[in-house]
Amino acid sequence: MRGLFAVIMLDLKRLWVDRVRLVSSLIQPLLYLFVLGSGLGASSRMGGSGYLHYIYPGVLGLSLLFSSVFAAMLIVFDRQIGFLKAVLVAPVPRVAIALGKVLSGAIQALVPATILLLLLPLLGMDLSLRALLELIGTMILAAVTFSALGVATAARFRSTTVFPIIGNAVLLPMFFLSGALYPLDSAPTWLRWLAHIDPVAYAVDLMRGAILDRYAYPPLLSLAVLLGFIVVLTWLATHVFAAGEDT
């Protein structure tokens, strides 16, 4: 546990020092929310709520997804400068290191997402305590899921140039397939099938349900899928670390 806590605190201290990364992580979600949301919201209303309200859960999902995965890029950077080798040879189980990376990535992603959460009153969304707790709980589950995905992926990369390219090639389709910006009801069948295997779709749907009380999937199904992804991706992340090289 001490090793796990040490890994988490080290990464959080680095986030505190690198505040530019925190600020930059808010730019893309805010652009989607206010530029796209306000622009299209002027001519579109969906399900009795404005388009801005509709895409807000999707913007939360965007923030959590990209912040979680790109927090894992520190693993690639640490490998390049030799710091990861020093961490791996320390008397700390590699499973604890991997879990620490997953949890620290999730916490780092929750910081900008929490700032976005503070915009709820400004956007005219008044949630009950139960709905707010459901929203926060889903955000935590989503952050852990996406962070595990990032750690499992980054543990195999050795270049900080290649990882963002591959990351965007995977993350952008995951985001756009999730129904974050548009309902999937009228989408082609093949697109809906792809959404069924996209964890972002279930996370966004749970958050949208908490805010708008409207679900595309049964909530228990979405919860089960997210928990399943957490188990599989966390196992994969710890397995990659445990079987990895020391450099």
UniProtKB/TrEMBL annotation:
Residues 20-244 form the ABC transmembrane type-2 domain. Keywords: Membrane, Transmembrane, Transmembrane helix. GO terms for molecular function: ABC-type transporter activity. InterPro entries: ABC2_TM, ABC2_TM_bact-type, ABC_2_transport, Nod_factor_ABC_transporter. Coiled coil: none annotated. It is found in: Membrane. GO terms for cellular component: ATP-binding cassette (ABC) transporter complex. It is a multi-pass membrane protein. The chain crosses the membrane at residues 20-42, 54-77, 98-123, 135-155, 162-184, 220-242. Pfam families: ABC2_membrane. PROSITE patterns: ABC_TM2 (PS51012). This is ABC-2 type transporter.
